[in-house]
Design goal:
The structure holds two protein chains of two kinds. By secondary structure, chain A is α/β, with parallel strands linked by helices. Chain A has helices at about 15-20, 40-50, 65-80, 90-95, 110-120, 135-150, 165-175, 215-220, 230, 245-265, 355-370, 380-400, 415-420, and strands at about 1-5, 30-35, 55-60, 85-90, 100-105, 125-130, 155, 180-185, 275-280, 285-290, 295-300, 320-325, 330, 340, 400-405, 410. Chain A has two domains: about 15-160 and about 360-380, NAD(P)-binding Rossmann-like Domain (Rossmann fold), CATH 3.40.50; about 165-195 and about 245-355 and about 380-415, Dihydrodipicolinate Reductase, domain 2 (2-Layer Sandwich). Chain A has 13 helices and 16 strands. Chain B has two domains: about 30-130; about 135-235. The chains are: A alpha/beta, B mainly alpha.
Amino acid sequence: MTTAGVIAAAPMIVPSSVLGQRAGAVPPSDRIAIAGIGIGGRGMASVNAILSYQDARFAAICDVKNTRREEIKGLVDKRYQNNDCMMYAYQEEVLARADIDAVIIATPEYWHAPLSVQAAYAGKDVYCEKPCSMTIQESRALADAFRRTGRVYQAGTQRRNGPNFVWAIEAARTGKLGKLQTVHANVGTYAMWPPIPSKDWLPGEPEPPKQVFDWDRWLGPCPWRPYNPFYVTGGGGWNNWYDFHGGGILEWGSHTVDLCQWAADCDDTHAIEYVPKGANGAPYSVNCVYPNGVKLVMRDGNNLGTRLADDGWLGMGSCSVRFEGDTGWVETGDGGRIAVSDNLRSQVPERIDDRLTLHYHWRDFIDCIKTRSQTRANADHACNSHITSHAAFIAFELGRKLTWDPAKEEFVNDAEANRMRSRAVRKPWAI
Amino acid sequence: MQNTAPTNPTGQRPAGGSTRRAKPEVPAQFKAEPIEKLDQAALIRILGEPGSEPATLFRKAIACKRLAVIGTKEAVPALAALLGDDRASDYARDALESMPDPSADDALRAALPKLKGLLLIGVINSLRRRRDLKAVEPLGKLVDGADAAVARAAALAVGEISGPVAAKTLQRALGTTKGAVRADVAAGALLCADRMMAEDRKGALALFDVLSQADIPSNVRMAAMHLRIVAETSLKRPRTAPGPK
């Protein structure tokens, strides 16, 4: 076994190709106009990326918080040295602008699919942070919307353009590991993101004035509950509440299950068997099988101490994945390190720098907007990998083995599980 | 609508939980577990409890969530009674939408003439989700109604339900509606045509042609043209081998 790719302390240089400079000077009218919807800490990484590109411009901010709107506008206008960034409280206004080409959606996840679908039908290309949907039904609606409209979609599963992950996936798909047997996906740590979020409520407190913070719009498609500031303030306060958050499996599975599906050549389907192990709030796993026989192990967290079996898992940082074939294996995670079986040692690159992963992902999106091509994390891929994660969630919540029919997109002989494939969306929203 | 979770410079959320805040204590009246353990009869009784304060709404919300998974037709009357309750209606819709029994469709359809505004839109959206064919006719009448928001929701619902009657309804409405309502009639027709493709390819293509006309809003027009091209170039299109020379 060997480990490669520890990043040296060299300064990060972003190549001109990533910055969109190869086309030379781009007139403002030809730059892709992008609006941000719900830009918080996570979305800021994308905004900063956009601001560094020559062939794109950040044109408008939409947010239910007035202070956040003003903060983003200030940042953008300062960067561009003008006063052009427009501010909106409601997405309908920004989606109605014909001069906006694309949107970045970085709201809490329960808004992701409804907003993406709304944007697609409004004629916008979409970059949407993960998780991309809250249910199996939303996943299908998302893929249908982008298939119908021909718009470009990029899920914020940036590891699909992460060099270390791509290296590992290529190893799995090109026979370097022999016949692929098992793929492992690190899902959310049970202590931080238990697989099943709480259905409890917090007690209500007086709502802020609507012009300061619009609680009703923040809730959006979720059923109404009383306002409590804990849900909406920093640190992901909406996490681990059933109506707002998809739980630990979806939290990291939207990245790692997605990578495993690609590695297993299953981007166009879903796992067909789900066996949950463990309890909510304790070490857990969901063992799955793909139609081609490859096994998928969803396993919680990074901590070796929480693993349910001694199966070789190294736990190489957040969002780690491991692919095992009959002649070799590879494991990688955030940070760029790659561990491989002895027989592959000579093939491991000396160094994988993953610091530009987000830029590569954005470049993929922007280039596909220009060429009207499919991104690496397109709506079909996102739909299919999210369906696998949602199905695992349902199996875990029901506490029993489930069998899934990918063609019919329904569980086999389990009425209760089938009833959990969707949730009602609060009026007037629909998806 | 903002995500304020912290990130590191590569845009990745931290692996650890150092920045997470402790969840506040949940008062006993807002704990779900005791309600989730109840049987259907007890859950139905909760739906009939008087009062609209948050603690009562919470009990109804959790009862509905549970009924969404286990509820039978015996729960339908109690759920239907909540469709007129501004706060509880979405929870009741959740339970009705997932219920396999057709009495759920009947209850939703029966609620259409009794409700207005947002409550009516919610029920329309539930019929849309269930793709209730029997709802096409009453929803079609709402497309012509005075409430534009209701008409728009109804148009999209008719399109999602799809079928030949839905197609005719929407084609007719394209000629009678204006502005935002007509835009959603066109969007509904797009959904309708796409869903028709498997059973009625000819009808679907004809509807795409209607939606490709210059007077259709550009977002729908482009999507219709896109789907038309996909249909004509797909390997799934009808193909006949030439006969022997």
